[in-house]
């Protein structure tokens, strides 16, 4: 296994639990404290339930049962995750570092400080060039995230969107009703999406009375941290929220690989597909890649026979799920852009219709990863 991000840790842990001898090579000396992905959706929670990992995740997570779309203080529509007919009718939120710590539970300790620089898949083994020498393995799974793509694909370049966002996790104790434009309902189980003429501002509950704010960033020309902080402080102030955390900026890209395997080399997670975080499904896609691949690899290793038909089916369904998630993420990204008044008004009407009676349930289903083949 290459990569000790959430996806590599999950697959490593599931394989080890099934008795497969597995090693994880990781180039970083230490685990990441970054908080990127925060939402874990119902299909992932269901897929991990038997392993006990779901219980671990839910011990720390907040259960988000509804989402509200708002514009200029008015409610446009509500997404009711609690009304979905699924075993886990909510989105579980926790910082990515907490998710990785939970997923590491069954996984072997990663061999840190080892970077893989080349992969040569053969019919009966895979050869790896690493910073600690050349190795051979009967099977290799690449879960190295976006930058590792060049190890396996000829055209690894992702499509970049023009959009930039600012992000911060802030203390929001008892936030209900404070501030001039603060919505009436900023409770600990409700996600808020403000579709403002100046671009989207999202706010998601996190454990410990915190919230993640993500805002479309007008200052594309300045990546200066002080200027980013200033822009985010002004955005939050307009929502009655003081800025109490660090601010970071991020861009949005899209990539879906043409294939996920060659001989005994498989590719999963962000190495294989990258979708806009505006929609919050990237890590979930990768976790489902891992959860569905684990039994096939276990079968392959224990019987010595490649489960060719099942792997072909796995590859087709995972790529189909990635394409659908990328389309939904692209729609969310477009919906969150700044708009002049006439088009902003059309957007508000469109979102009212989208989330209204009839179609509202369909969108709740789609936002909760209900379009994934594993849902
Ligand atoms: C701002 C932001 C917010 C996000 N929010 C969400 C969200 O709410 N929900 C969601 O589902 N997703 C979200 N995502 C996406 C999510 O963070 C990624 O999908 C997820 O981290 C992918 O996991 P991964 O394990 O595939 O790759 P990564 O997390 O990138 O991990 C890959 C690991 O492999 C290691 N590695 C790379 N190359 C090599 C090499 N050559 N040799 C050895 N080791 C290597 C890296 O050091 C790294 O540790 C967000 C992303 C961003 C940027």
Radius of gyration: 21 Å
Which topology of the domain at 6-65 and 88-158 and 253-338 does CATH recognise? FAD/NAD(P)-binding domain
Report the count of strand segments: 19
Poorly predicted regions: 175-185
Fraction of residues in H or I helices: 25-40%
Shape: globular
Strand % is 25-35%
As laid out across the biggest beta sheet, the strand order is 5-4-13-14-15-12-16-19
What are the distinct ligands in this entry? flavin-adenine dinucleotide
Task: Please outline the major beta sheet.
Answer: 8 strands, mixed
Overall pLDDT metric: 93
Structural classification: alpha+beta
Distance between the termini: 26 Å
Order of helices and strands: HEEHHEEEEHEEEEEEEEEHEEEEHHHH
Classified in CATH, the superfamily of the domain at 6-65 and 88-158 and 253-338 is FAD/NAD(P)-binding domain
CATH class of the domain at 6-65 and 88-158 and 253-338: Alpha Beta
Tally of alpha and pi helices: 9
> What's the architecture of the domain at 6-65 and 88-158 and 253-338, going by CATH?
3-Layer(bba) Sandwich
What is the strand and helix layout of this fold?
Layout: H1 6-17, E1 25-26, E2 39-40, H2 42-47, H3 53-60, E3 62-64, E4 66-71, E5 74-80, E6 91-93, H4 96-103, E7 111-112, E8 116-121, E9 126-130, E10 133-137, E11 140-142, E12 159-171, E13 190-196, E14 199-206, E15 210-216, H5 225-238, E16 247-256, E17 261-262, E18 265-267, E19 273-274, H6 282-303, H7 308-335, H8 341-354, H9 359-367
Parallel strand pairs: 1-7, 4-13, 11-18
Antiparallel strand pairs: 2-6, 3-6, 4-5, 8-9, 9-10, 12-15, 12-16, 13-14, 14-15, 16-19, 17-18
The structure holds flavin-adenine dinucleotide (FAD).
Flavin-adenine dinucleotide (FAD) binds next to α1, β1 and α6.
């Amino acid at each position: 296994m290459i990569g000790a991000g959430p996806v590599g840790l999950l697959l490593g842990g599931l394989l080890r639990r099934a008795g497969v001898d597995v090693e994880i090579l990781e180039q970083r000396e230490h685990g990441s404290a970054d908080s990127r992905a925060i939402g874990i959706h119902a299909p992932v929670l269901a897929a991990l339930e038997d392993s006990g990992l779901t219980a671990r995740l839910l011990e720390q997570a907040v259960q988000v049962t509804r989402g509200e779309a708002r514009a200029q203080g008015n409610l446009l529509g509500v997404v009711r995750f609690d009304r979905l007919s699924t075993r886990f009718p909510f989105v579980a939120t926790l910082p990515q570092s907490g998710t990785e710590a939970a997923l590491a539970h069954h996984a072997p300790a990663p061999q840190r400080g080892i970077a893989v620089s080349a992969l040569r898949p053969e019919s009966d083994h895979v050869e790896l060039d690493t910073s600690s020498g050349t190795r051979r393995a009967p099977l290799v799974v690449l879960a190295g995230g976006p930058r590792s793509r060049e190890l396996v694909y000829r055209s690894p370049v992702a499509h970049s969107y023009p959009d930039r966002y600012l992000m911060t996790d802030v203390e929001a104790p008892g936030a209900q009703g404070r501030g001039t434009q603060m919505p009436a309902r900023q409770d600990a189980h409700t996600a808020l999406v403000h579709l403002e003429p100046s671009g989207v501002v999202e706010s998601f509950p996190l454990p410990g009375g915190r919230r993640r704010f993500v805002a479309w960033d007008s200052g594309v020309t300045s990546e200066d941290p002080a200027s980013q902080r200033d822009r985010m402080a002004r955005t939050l102030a307009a929502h009655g929220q003081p800025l109490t955390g660090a601010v970071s900026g991020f861009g949005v890209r899209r990539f879906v690989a043409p294939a996920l395997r060659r001989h005994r080399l498989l590719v999963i997670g962000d190495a294989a597909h990258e979708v806009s975080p505006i929609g919050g499904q990237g890590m979930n896609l990768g976790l489902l890649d891992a959860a569905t691949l684990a039994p096939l690899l276990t079968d392959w290793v224990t019987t010595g026979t490649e489960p060719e038909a099942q792997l072909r089916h796995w590859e087709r369904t995972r790529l189909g799920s990635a394409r659908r998630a990328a389309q939904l993420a692209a729609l969310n990204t477009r919906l969150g852009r700044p708009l002049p008044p006439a088009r902003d008004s059309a957007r508000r009407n469109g979102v009212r219709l989208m989330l209204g009676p009839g179609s509202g349930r369909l969108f709740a289903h789609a936002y909760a990863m209900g379009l994934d083949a594993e849902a």
